[in-house]
Amino acid sequence: IIIKHLGKGSQGNVYLCLNSKKQPVCLKSVRFEDVHELNNAFLEVKSLLKLNHDRIVNVIDSFALDNEDR
């Protein structure tokens, strides 16, 4: 459930949401111009999944939608 829009950056938007357990989470929505940008984003997610630090957000999940899924 999207609660509110938190902000917009050069890559996309961030929303405050509630997950299925009603816990607050942030959702980052990013648009890509090409497959190269999409691959770079998944590399970033892969790197973030390896990190565990109080000042770095934890990644819970990631996925991609094509134009037909939006």
Any key phrases for this structure?
3 strands, 70 residues, alpha+beta
Can you give a write-up of this model?
This protein is an alpha+beta fold and 70 residues long. It has a 3-stranded antiparallel sheet with strand order 1-2-3, with no helix packed on it. The chain starts with a strand and ends in a 21-residue tail after the last helix.
How confident overall, as mean pLDDT? 89
- List the total number of helices: 1
Rg on CA atoms, Å? 13 Å
Terminal-residue CA separation: 17 Å
Helix content: 10-25%
The proportion of strand residues reads: 25-35%
| Number of E strands | 3
Write down the oligomeric state: single chain
What does the overall shape look like? Answer: globular
Order of helices and strands: EEEH
Characterize the largest beta sheet: strand count, sense, and whether it forms a barrel.
Answer: 3 strands, antiparallel
Topology, element by element:
Elements: E1 2-8, E2 12-18, E3 24-30, H1 35-49
Please summarize what this structure is:
The chain is of the alpha+beta class and 70 residues long.
